[in-house]
Design a protein that fits this description.
The protein has one domain: NAD(P)-binding Rossmann-like Domain (Rossmann fold, 3-Layer(aba) Sandwich), CATH 3.40.50.720. The chain is built from ten helices and nine strands. It has helices at about 15-25, 45-50, 65-75, 100-130, 150-170, 190-195, 210-230, 235-245, 260-270, 275-285, and strands at about 5, 30-35, 55-60, 85, 95, 135-140, 175-185, 195, 250-255. The protein binds nicotinamide-adenine-dinucleotide.
């Protein structure tokens, strides 16, 4: 009996990498439903699987912010079940909070939070009925700790953490495991796909000069962190494979140890002051990514 996997956001990045990995697994143990919002972007995925997917992968349209599209994709699953649901679709947003429009903020929450929740809602009843299933969510270091100029993105990813952690407790009773794969920076199109306030954006004229200056510093920091600590998609995919292979998957998997000291600091000094100080130093003073 093959393991049916449905993945969201497969036109690029982590979703694409995972779909390729599973569809071309030599065991042929997986049937992959690789879903994407826009089917006109399927060529890259098809190129990457290069013919070794005839009976292991099917591409379906699915926009996680569109209920009808989620239901339509669900109807097309021949096996009438999903063993592993991977909620991966997501979008970033960067810039001083004063420059973010209500529309854009809602859009980020729609994809990252409600998209994840609605996808899970669609597949959960059938998993509960079978008393079996795995849910894997692409999480982020930004879902565990605050990052300046990523306020809205972090808020949406923190919300995903709260949702998954809450659900995990109930799902124990149904033999369903939910796992978050907490990624640090990954070399995908995420940075080019994200909506970012450009340093030349006229909206910045309405922001105080100190914030604008700190934002410039942040952008440099971000570039440095990507250079020094970004992982390749393959490394991330391996962590997904570890979670998939685990008999008792954990709630959280960390792909990148670089950020663990900061994550721990936040948890060990509960009033938050140490984390805020350390992060301020990390982002706004010159450093090497490993030193803090
Ligand atoms: P990416 O931009 O290549 O992939 C995101 C995918 O989600 C894209 O294919 C995009 O089309 C899709 N998507 C966006 N809105 C959608 C919608 N409404 N319906 C369906 N699909 C939609 O970047 P990625 O790095 O592969 O991102 C995947 C996940 O990893 C995201 O959830 C992101 O938050 C998370 N993440 C990425 C990084 C990073 O540095 N790349 C770091 C931490 C977490």
């Amino acid at each position: 009996d093959k393991t049916v996997v449905l993945i969201t956001g497969c036109s690029s990045g982590i979703g694409l990498g995972l779909a390729v990995r599973l569809a071309s697994d030599t065991s042929k143990a997986f049937i992959v439903y690789a879903t994407m919002r826009n089917l006109s972007k399927k060529e890259r995925l098809l190129e990457c699987v290069r013919g070794c997917h005839e009976d292991t992968m099917e591409i379906l349209q699915m926009d996680v912010t569109d209920q009808l599209s989620i239901q339509a994709a669900k109807q097309r699953i021949k096996e009438k079940k999903v063993d592993i649901l991977v909620c991966n679709a997501g979008a970033g947003l960067m810039g001083p909070v004063e420059t973010q429009s209500y529309e854009t903020m809602k859009q980020i929450f729609d994809v990252n939070l409600f998209g994840t929740i609605c996808t899970i809602q669609a597949f959960l009843p059938e998993m509960k009925e079978r008393k079996s299933g795995r849910i894997i969510v692409t999480g982020s270091v930004g879902g565990l700790q605050g990052i300046p100029f990523n306020d809205v993105y972090c808020a949406s990813k923190f919300a995903v953490e709260g949702f998954c952690e809450s659900l995990a407790i109930l799902l124990q009773h149904f033999n369903i495991h939910i796992s978050l794969i907490e990624c640090g920076p990954v070399n995908t199109n995420f940075m080019t796909n994200l909506q970012r306030t450009d340093p030349e954006d006229p909206k910045l004229q309405h922001v105080d000069p100190e914030t604008t200056q700190l934002y410039q510093k942040y952008l440099q920091h971000c570039e440095r962190v990507f250079e020094e600590a970004a992982q390749d998609t393959e490394e991330i995919v391996q962590v997904f494979m570890d979670a998939i292979g685990a008999q008792f998957p954990s709630l959280r998997y960390y792909t990148n140890t670089t950020f663990l000291p900061l994550t721990k600091l936040k948890l060990s000094v509960e009033d938050g002051t140490q984390y805020i100080k350390a992060m301020n130093k990390f982002v706004f003073s010159t450093h090497k990514t490993g030193d803090f």
